[in-house]
Amino acid sequence: MQIFFKENLAFLAVPKTGTTAWEMALKRRADIVFSGRRKHANAAFFHRKLAPFLEDAYGLTPERMAVIRDPLDQARSWYRYRQRDALEGSKYSTRGVNFDAFARATIQPDPPPFANVGSQGAFLTLKTSREMPLHHLFAYEAQDVLRGFLEERFGRQIKPRTYNVSPRIEAELSPETEAAFRKARALDYELHARVIAAGGHLQQLLET
Question: Which listed residue, 55, 114, 128, 176, has the most CB atoms within 10 A of its CB?
Answer without folding.
Answer: 114
